[in-house]
Fold Transmembrane protein.
Amino acid sequence: MKFRAFLLASLLAAYLLLSHWVLASAQQHVRLGIALALAPPVAAAAMFFAASGRRVLLLPLLAGVALLQWYRHDWFAAHFSWLYFLQDAGTQLCLAVMFGRTLFAGQQPLCSRIAAVIHGRLDPALARYTHQVTVAWTLFFVAMTSVSTVLFLFAPLAMWSTFSNLLMLPLTGLMFAMEYALRLYRLPQWRAEMRFVDTFRAYAAVNTGTPRDSQGGH
């Protein structure tokens, strides 16, 4: 499991570095840029087909993408940087919506749902804190979307790529670390049950609908 996580992290890092090199380079690496830009949505579609038992559609998917790239090569060559931007800003915006929509009346904030997987019933202090954290994550992803959009539209492409490919993940990791430190400070009574890895397991349980009892919760 650790090796798999390390391998995935290494592949992601290599992808981001190579994407930045393509976008920031003075030379035009058009074919490589197009291939890298199309890789994430193709990989996501392939994983969806594989998980849903529709592996027979994988080959037509790859053939269709290759044909589309060949047939519309000039369009992709002129706009492939937009494919990167739409994926980046689109992902950040989807995350903002995912957190933000749970703040409306009648909804349980997403971070409260995650905390409930770990702790069971939430006391008022923890419920209030997790509501505030959900707001914070919503604002964070809104800010990331906004900065990415402004830089892409008005700054050199290399500057946008630096933010998107090199800084986005470290900033997200810093946000996780700051929230975790604040959680330990604000809620010391839960210190023994606040392992960092439990948050990710609980998040997975919430998104897959896994019952809390199967996660070892209360």
In short: Residues 2-215 form one domain. Residues 124-154 form the longest helix (31 residues). Residues 211-218 have pLDDT under 50 and may be disordered. Residues 59 and 187 are 51 Å apart (CA to CA).
